[in-house]
Design goal:
The protein is an alpha+beta fold and about 220 residues long. The chain has helices at about 5-20, 35-40, 75-90, 110-115, 120-135, 135-140, 145-160, 165-170, 175-190, 210-220; strands at about 55, 65-70, 95-105, 195-200, 205. Helix 3 crosses helix 10 (about 210-220). This is DsbA family protein.
């Protein structure tokens, strides 16, 4: 999924504005205003140090792989439902690779999914992310904003998040604004313009097959 960075925030501002006018009248309550403030997070000084980096693998692994992905990106879902599982078994779980997952926010739906994935802390993050990616074709196509957020709520409840906690996470506008600012900082640093994108020991690489990932990782491990 490829989008110009400048267009991301324009799109966010548009959907946030439309929601501010009409979303509150929905029978199924939407998050109160996560994007109204978050859309302009890049214009304000936001302390992003409060955002937890989501990682897997040994902290001192010789290879670090960062993934930039959006929960609404079909290519990201394909990667997580297939290639990632092989990478995890062969490289991450064996202590060879430290894996870092960083969210990209192309739209409010991806941001809502991220807020649910982060709702139960780092220990549950990747498990909830798996559920979100597995169900992407269903929740992302459920209809309008109300239908989509209801499907995401179902995933949150399936993951064991209580209703009150789930709503508190979704309604946390300050957290949403901070997440967007954090995303922009990271994406600017690494020149991220499409998803999924990867940073392998500091070098940007594109999405590829497991066999091609394996060759790159083995080369790094061999030094």
């Amino acid at each position: 999924m490829t989008r110009l960075m400048s267009g991301v925030f324009a799109a966010v501002a548009v959907v946030a504005g439309g929601y501010a006018l009409s979303g509150f009248n929905s029978q199924s309550s939407l998050p109160s205003n996560p994007l109204v403030g978050a859309a302009f997070a890049q214009e304000a000084e936001v302390d992003t140090s409060t955002i937890t980096e989501m990682t897997l693998g040994a902290e001192d692994a010789p290879v670090t792989l960062i993934e930039y992905a959006s929960y609404t990106c079909p290519h990201c879902a394909s990667f997580h439902n297939d290639t990632f599982k092989k990478l995890k078994a062969d490289y991450i779980d064996t202590g060879k690779v430290k894996f870092i997952y960083r969210e990209v926010y192309f739209d409010r739906y991806g941001l809502w999914a991220s807020m649910i994935a982060r709702c139960n802390g780092p220990e549950k993050f990747f498990g909830i992310s798996d559920l979100i990616y597995k169900g992407q074709s269903e929740w992302a196509r459920a209809g309008g904003a109300s239908e989509i957020i209801d499907e995401l709520r179902k995933i949150g409840r399936l993951a064991g998040i209580e209703n009150d906690q789930l709503e508190a996470c979704l309604q946390d506008g300050e957290k949403a604004q901070t997440l967007v600012a954090w995303y922009q900082e990271n994406a600017t640093e690494h020149g991220i313009e499409s998803t999924p994108s990867f940073i392998l020991n500091g070098e940007k690489i594109s999405n590829q097959s497991y066999e091609d990932f394996k060759k790159l990782l083995d080369a790094e491990l061999e030094g």
